[in-house]
């Protein structure tokens, strides 16, 4: 009976030891200084990508908010000749759509082509503001896996170096450090790259919705100016 209990305790201890060696922190520590440096770089890139993502999402969400009756009120003001009231309404809204309409209102009295050009120029500026720092997230999505693969190469070099020092005798303990570096950095790079890629695509989709909203309201405003009096 005691033999079975001792065997069970040994099995439990082995399981605990195995679980500890498979923990993420232990894997990172086992990867050596090179692996830890690369993991730290990838962690910083992940934080940067997440910060830009949440900051841009909040900004885009605020930019997409617009009163459903906004264009109806603009139409009433412009049709009634109340240009100043229309400008005040645009200033109160303070969204990309309202700023485009405000730019068009400020050009009332000039040829329709000039008004259209002014709105298009203002629209490009608004799109540039919406896409601020999004290219950084796109860069991270491509660079992170490459940094992870760099860790893979470094890990393999370390493993080969340990084999050469051992005189060609293969010992898994000697190879473990390099293999840990290779595997952990590759996984970390892929995770950061996938997260950044998904964040970038989501930002692009949300930005496109705001752009379509600006285009729709701009066309509606130009149609208003083109209506016969």
Automatic annotation (TrEMBL):
Record's bilayer topology term: Multi-pass membrane protein
Keywords for the protein's UniProt record, in alphabetical order: Cell membrane, Membrane, Protein transport, Transmembrane, Transmembrane helix, Transport
Transmembrane regions listed in the UniProt entry: 33-54, 134-158, 178-200
Compartments where found: Cell membrane; Membrane
KW Ribonucleoprotein (keyword) present: no
A Pfam family: MotA_ExbB
Superkingdom in the source lineage: Bacteria
Domain MotA/TolQ/ExbB proton channel: 94-215
Family from the record: Belongs to the exbB/tolQ family.
Protein name: MotA/TolQ/ExbB proton channel family protein
Organism: Sungkyunkwania multivorans
Lineage: Bacteria, Pseudomonadati, Bacteroidota, Flavobacteriia, Flavobacteriales
């Amino acid at each position: 009976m005691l033999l079975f209990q001792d065997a069970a305790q040994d099995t439990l201890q082995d399981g605990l030891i195995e679980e500890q060696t498979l923990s993420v922190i232990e894997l990172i520590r086992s990867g050596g200084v090179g692996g830890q440096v690369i993991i730290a770089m990838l962690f910083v890139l992940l934080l940067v990508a997440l910060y830009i993502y949440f900051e841009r999402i909040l900004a885009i969400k605020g930019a997409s908010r617009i009163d459903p009756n906004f264009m109806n009120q603009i139409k009433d003001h412009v049709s009634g000749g109340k240009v100043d009231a229309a400008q005040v309404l645009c200033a109160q809204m303070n969204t990309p759509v309202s700023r485009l309409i405000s730019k068009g209102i400020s050009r009332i009295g000039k040829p329709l082509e000039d008004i259209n050009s002014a709105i298009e120029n203002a629209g490009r500026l608004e799109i540039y503001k919406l896409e601020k720092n999004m290219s950084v997230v796109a860069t991270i999505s491509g660079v992170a896996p490459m940094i992870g693969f760099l860790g893979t190469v470094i890990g393999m070099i370390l493993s080969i170096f340990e084999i050469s020092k051992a005189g060609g005798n293969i010992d898994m303990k000697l190879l473990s450090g390099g293999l840990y570096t290779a595997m952990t950095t590759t996984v970390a790079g892929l995770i950061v790259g996938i997260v950044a890629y998904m964040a970038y695509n989501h930002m692009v989709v949300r930005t496109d919705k705001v752009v379509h909203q600006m285009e729709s309201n701009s066309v509606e405003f130009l149609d208003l100016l083109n209506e016969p009096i």
